[in-house]
Specification:
223 residues; mainly alpha; MetI-like fold; 8 helices; flat
């Protein structure tokens, strides 16, 4: 193992990991917005909205992310006649894909809340939207923190797939380095180590947030 070579390439890999993290944060942010909207459509009781949301979730959960990236970056520009930007295509693909999984996370979180709370809120004169915003969603979000953390970690690892459209994130950078220096073990173990550092850090942060929310709930109940 060439430790001197690993020391030389780590700064470049860490720099690329920043783009990987940025892609993931942008993707999960888009996914949370889309997922929340899709989950509310699924439980709205309006058949058309529910069917549209279900079709979206089924398609993006049932097809490989790699294919979705190719469609967004290669197929859609041909259909709509525009010039794609690789990093934009990557973010959109990650966001839309994540939204399908986040939608199911939020739907499960909302459905885990006692239905009596919605009925009580409505009896107090709240609209469905107000009850969702002020009563149901805050509780559902707390319940959804652990699976959202898992989705963040999964998306971070899946972000390596944008390497097929030449976005120079961590995976692509590893391939570029290997093109010049064919030290396979040193390069890919270094890449794997950085992914492990990133995912472990996210897991620690998610556990911290979850504990803080639990402490907050305990404090409110004791008052």
């Amino acid at each position: 193992m060439r430790w001197d070579f690993i020391a030389d390439i780590l700064p470049r890999l860490f720099k690329a990991s920043i783009l990987t993290l940025e892609l993931t944060i942008a993707g999960i942010s888009i996914g949370i917005v889309i997922g929340l909207i899709a989950s509310l459509m699924r439980i709205s009781g309006i058949k058309v909205l529910s069917a549209v949301a279900k079709a979206y979730v089924d398609f993006f959960r049932g097809t490989p992310l790699l294919v979705q990236i190719a469609i967004i970056h290669y197929a859609l520009p041909v259909i709509f006649n525009y010039t794609p930007v690789a990093i934009v295509s990557g973010v959109i693909a990650l966001g839309i894909n994540s939204g399908a999984y986040v939608a199911e996370i939020f739907r499960a979180g909302i459905q885990s809340i006692d239905k009596g709370q919605m009925e009580a809120a409505r009896s107090l004169g709240m609209t469905w939207g107000q009850a969702m915003r002020y009563i149901i969603l805050p509780q559902a979000f707390k319940v959804s923190i652990p699976p959202l953390g898992n989705e963040f970690i999964a998306l971070l690892k899946d972000s390596s797939l944008v390497s097929i459209i030449a976005v120079e994130e961590l995976m692509t950078t590893g391939r570029l380095i290997m093109g010049r220096y064919p030290l396979v073990a040193e390069i890919w173990f270094s890449v794997a180590l950085i992914y492990l550092i990133l995912t472990s850090t996210i897991a620690i942060l998610v556990n911290f947030v979850e504990r803080r929310l639990q402490i907050g709930d305990s404090g409110q109940r004791s008052v």
